[in-house]
Design a protein that fits this description.
By secondary structure, the protein is mainly alpha-helical. It is built from 13 helices and four strands.
Amino acid sequence: MVARTRYAPDRGLTVRMGLTMFLLGLVFVAFVAAIIGISAAVHASDGAIVFFAVVLGGGLAIGSFFYSDKIALSTAGAQLVTPQQAPELHGIVDRICALADMPKPRIAISPTDLPNAFATGRNSEHAVLCVTQGLMRRLTPEELEGVISHEMSHVAHKDVMVMTVASFLAIIAGLLIRFSFYGELFGGGGRRGGNNNNQSALPILLIIMAVSIVVYAISFLLIRLLSRYRELAADRSGALLTGQPSALASALTKVSGSIARIPTKDLREAAPLNAFFFAPALSAQQAQSKFGELFSTHPSLDKRLAQLAKISQQLGQH
């Protein structure tokens, strides 16, 4: 799934990401087998709930895949900018694209003071890079280059496609939870009166809900694990591309420290873009706690800095 660019591969992280995707596949197969077995015991109209969830979930996943750039830009309130409007930013992106030998994405700026950046799009030809005014105001050109190199790595490694595929199971499970809940709330199995087989729909729909909850929880944790792996991979390949891991580490430290001082209201508004962001819009306490990291889309700051320090040593830097 890796595009042919000059971004350095990380075989260790690739193996771990592949294993995580394999585990998600196993969960999906087990989920489908369980749902088919359960649905066989209920009326056809109840089994149709599963089919409808798969179709709707597939539609949502496809829509997210093809329109992730438009959705993300709209959520961030960002506007596309030309080289005349943002010459320094375009110059940095031009250098990164030349180094990586990949097409230049569209470039946007979000007016928020929250220091962050993200890149999204189904492939390099339809990619968009967005940085916030807060990020540009706080970082040096070298640090900004490190952040942009990290974000462009996500495009090169087709992370939008990877995460869309990984999220498909969780979407279906989440929809089945909702459908089963509302099915019980508004009539459930009792709506068919005297037919004993049909009356069994109530407990069976509850079983579908319970199975869906378990599958959703497992897939949610695996997707979060996969997301943290891809962030580490982007840090590594971005740092190796520019040859300046210390600049990326400095940017990480600045951004994380600044986010901790952003008002909670602003962080909540930015939360929908957490999975896309260079650094998560969370408080320092949430991001650094062991329990919080389990549910986080990003590795802890300490883990990311430790990896960059190791890369600096490998490159002979101090």
